[in-house]
Amino acid sequence: MGADAETDSDAETTRLTEYTELHGCSCKVGQGDLDSLLADAGLTGESDPLLFGIGEDAAARKLTDDIALVSTVDFFTPIVDDPYDFGRVAACNAASDAFATGAVENVDCLVVLGLPRELTDNAAPILAGMADALDTMDGVIAGGHTIMSPWPFAGGAISATARPEALLTSQGASPGDQLYLTKPIGTQPAMGATRVTDEQFVETVTDATDRPLDTIASEAIEWMTTPNRDAVSACREHATAATDITGFGLAGQSRVVAARSNVGIELTHLPVIAGTPDLSTLFGYGLTDGESAETSGGLFVSVPPTATDAVESAFDDAGVFYRAVGHATAGRGVTIDDPTLEEVRR
Amino acid sequence: MARVDVRGEICPRPALIVRQALSDLDTGETLVVRGDYPPAEENLRRMCTTHGIDVTTAETAGESDEFELELQVTELASLSEA
After folding, report:
1. What are A277-297's pLDDT values in tens digits?
2. Using a CB-CB distance cutoff of 8 angstroms, which residues of chain B are in contact with residue A283?
3. Where is the UPF0033 domain (chain B) (predicted)?
4. Which of A87, A208, A316, B47 has the greatest CB tally within 10 Å of its CB?
């Protein structure tokens, strides 16, 4: 089904990203606005029936002593023009919130899809992309809801299960923990470059980096369609806290972990998709400050020093990309002071 | 005083448009940018401060999401060589 969708000629001529002002996870409402909204609505995050909920990547409810049900919803505007790829990225991104809690079994996805009337032909390839992506996560599409919308968007409500004691939140990091990131950052500048197609600026963007823009973009799509399932399966036994990197960027997600774990976070090493720092500088995105929005980014996990060897060995065995990017400290807030940049090529 | 209007432009075009306009200016000259897309304001501020362009917010305020920035080319400006 995926191969047919990919070669659909109508879909190839549509530029999905032209229909929105914000793209991928950069359409996410900011942390400050979200906090105000929750406070205004009286939603404190405490809910007795749940193991955890508001403020975390997903909610978890203990069903039995052996099973916890994790649920989450995530959808966003197109980050890529190809509808099949958009579907794959959307499914991967939605499931990532469940994986960030350590829940990797019994993955079901209820599709959330909105398209303008003139783009309804894209529905089938988007769904095909989502289904194929879920297949790689041993998950299924269990249903969904589709509406007409002036801005296209896609994603899903994900449910998954885990043993209650295997669950992770953003609250468990301790001073001294090593921090790992399981994908390089840089999806926003990589995909932003693909939206510059007019003669006026194509040369400026092309000349900004030594790498071909389509190579950078295709690598970004490869990373965005890599599920975080293997990564969390490898480390959840030893990790003390976890989240995934999304629209808040690496720095923003680090601030979440720092605040919720009552630690400081010092980031010293940033793996980036090769070529994206130059594009970020051109576009003013703040990638090397960790402020650039990420779409379907990697897992960000804290691991006690005593378990780093075991976790790195498990990542290696699973074939998962990972880099040690910093430490949790006894301080507060997030520090990114002249980090080393590692340009990653696939 | 040079002016550029990036309202309605989709990211990352506002940064590219402003960058091009700035590269035509000499030290001490000012460019006024009007936009309507909050993330673009942040990106423009970041791009300018890393390239030696002074950024101040103009007093005029339009609709809620609209912004106007005054960008002044300093002796440290490096955009024209980028």
Report:
1. 999 999 999 999 999 999 999
2. 11-12, 15-16, 43, 47
3. 4-28
4. A87
